[in-house]
Amino acid sequence: MNIYDVSEKAGVSIATVSRVLNGNPNVSEQTKNKVLAVMEELGYTPNIFARGLGLNTMKTIGIMCTDSSDIYLANAVYYTEHELRSHDYDSILCCTGYDLENKKKSLELLLSKRVDAIIMVGSKFLEPKLEDNAYIIAASTQLPIMLVNGFLEGENIFCTLCDDFHAIYGVTDKLIKSGRHSLLYLYTSNSYSGARKREGYLAALSHNSMPVREQYMQMCKKDIKDARDTIIRLHRDGMQIDSVITSDDSLAVGALKFALLNQMSVPEDICIVGYNNSILATCAEPELTSIDTKVEALCVNTVNTLMRIFDGYDVPSRTMISADIVYRKTTNI
Amino acid sequence: MNIYDVSEKAGVSIATVSRVLNGNPNVSEQTKNKVLAVMEELGYTPNIFARGLGLNTMKTIGIMCTDSSDIYLANAVYYTEHELRSHDYDSILCCTGYDLENKKKSLELLLSKRVDAIIMVGSKFLEPKLEDNAYIIAASTQLPIMLVNGFLEGENIFCTLCDDFHAIYGVTDKLIKSGRHSLLYLYTSNSYSGARKREGYLAALSHNSMPVREQYMQMCKKDIKDARDTIIRLHRDGMQIDSVITSDDSLAVGALKFALLNQMSVPEDICIVGYNNSILATCAEPELTSIDTKVEALCVNTVNTLMRIFDGYDVPSRTMISADIVYRKTTNI
DNA sequence: GCGGCGGTTGTAAGCGCTTACACATCTAAG
DNA sequence: CTTAGATGTGTAAGCGCTTACAACCGCCGC
């Protein structure tokens, strides 16, 4: 079943059929209808490979995601895919994991699939090798590389960022102003976005003339138990803690478990702030104050920027979207 | 940059280059190495479209998922993608939503992409129209349709199911045996898997000679608050409840919130059982007893079955994987 | 009556790859 | 020494589509 079958049955040439297929205006209304009718009748579907061969594009975008089972990233993938589809683009999903070698392989795979652009979700972008990779792609192909909440500078690299700095700055500042002075910052990774959050925390301390104490910035796994145990350990070592600011809701839940074990009341004895405003925030008891990072807006902007690039417009290489603080029961600020 | 450039530079014919590309054994070690060296030097990447044109396959599987932002489905997509990749297949992700018209469009899109099979995740499979669609595909193409925890009968339709019946039967039975007699079953949808769970609940009642009371089977949205409010309403109307069995962890969390509001102690006054053993189960306080539905095993089995189909083996059209009850703090059975 | 001009359609040359078949070598058995 | 068979390589015909170019038609103005 190919274009010849259609052309034969419709009594026209394959060129005409192809024109109808591509919405070329140089076809009389009459012929067009006839061809369309035959296509319908035969249930004809154009062969995407042949088409791609000629056009050398497949209207397909590669999505690289470190871990699509992560709640936050799953949402990002979902919204990205959704928005792409509304623009008539498909996506090939590539879950790379955090291993650099795998990322590189995924990148090559997407390139070999002749995707029209690559959207990266959840990469850390502080790893020199990955930077190299992104640079190499951007340089060797004209492929736009879109980073969702990541940052790299480069010819064809475009970033849509959440304003993590001001989000963390905002809550930290409010907590301090409300009288808190032992603020633990618990984070999971040294990603670009992670670095911005950390800066926000530090800036708030500094603007309030509070000392920076290294042990009050602790890294742990993105895991409820690991977060809980980290705080338990710190507490046992005598650390005073009246607030926990985290880089992910799961850590905040860990903090909540710690408070429960120690019979500390939340938010009186200890304030807890989550991040990403995921379902964990409303699942927790009491419900978590959390930062809404506007995943959907981030993804929509990323895709729209990409579409503008395809259309030949100049676009800013960097867009910042501000986050919201969602106040719930784990703070009284 | 194409196969001709490589063949010329290597001083061989394009056929030889193609053979090297495809691992055809009829190439001398010497020539092969020369060709590989030239490819490397030129940074040659075969054009996937041309390849697809010749082979009429792209080693790509379409994944249809109703909502990849759902925790359970995100996991399923993740494992499926992962397993496919380990078999050297790519996936095109299509989030269809629950609208039938969209599902149909997604189906057509995947077909037009010439995917080699379709894996459906999270479809309800009780909707007549969708069945029709699946039947049409299965009949009109030779495309295998793989259902992850869904059930349809048809020529090229293969299902990997979680044994939801025995999972729910098991907990319900244990609860009854431990003395509970007012067991509320809270569920979200009338999917195939949902129907099996319900049957499990009913069977357990019946085997313990307990009456079936319609109002003890309640449907609500997959949403913490909606579940909570549903139970609050029932309770206010005077319903006795000493156990809540749910079809999703989020509903169980809702039940937990109800218990908290009513100062009922868990599990003494009320036992609560979740489903899917998601992160919500360990996020909740107390942690939820939940059913581990073995998503990974389900997905791995689905992909492996597909690979066997591709290799020409006969495979069962239906595989059942048993679920585990993970005992935590919301039950004392 | 003729050239020219839109509008419409057809012809044929790719796009980059796979692969059946043909052909050339070389080996080993008869 | 011949020859069947194994082994390695090349030729060329697709795969189904796009599109530049050519060709045709009817119609206009001169």
At a glance:
Chain A is α/β, with parallel strands linked by helices. Chain A has helices spanning about 5-10, 15-20, 30-40, 50-55, 70-85, 100-110, 130-140, 165-175, 190-205, 225-235, 250-260, 280-285, 295-310; strands at about 60-65, 90-95, 115-120, 145-150, 155-160, 185, 215-220, 245, 270-275, 290, 320, 325.
List keywords for this structure.
homodimer; 333 residues; alpha/beta; 434 Repressor (Amino-terminal Domain); Rossmann fold; four-stranded parallel β-sheet; DNA-binding
Question: Can you offer a commentary on this structure?
Answer:
Two copies of one chain form a homodimer. The first copy, chain A, has 333 residues and is an alpha/beta fold. Chain A has three domains: 3-46, 434 Repressor (Amino-terminal Domain) (Orthogonal Bundle), CATH 1.10.260; 58-162 and 295-323, Rossmann fold; 164-293, Rossmann fold (3-Layer(aba) Sandwich), CATH 3.40.50.2300. Helix content of chain A is 47%, strand content 16%. Chain A is built from 13 helices and twelve strands. In chain A, the strands form three sheets. In chain A, strands 2-1-3-4-5-11 form a six-stranded parallel β-sheet, sandwiched between helices. In chain A, strand 3 (117-121), helix 7 and strand 4 form a beta-alpha-beta unit. In chain A, helix 1 packs across helix 3 and helix 5 (71-86) runs parallel beside helix 13 (295-310). Chains A and B meet through helix 4, helix 5, strand 2, helix 6 and helix 11 of A and helix 4, helix 5, strand 2, helix 6 and helix 11 of B. Chain A binds a DNA duplex (30 and 30 nucleotides) through residues 2-4, 12-19, 21-22, 24, 26-28, 31, 46-47, 49-56.
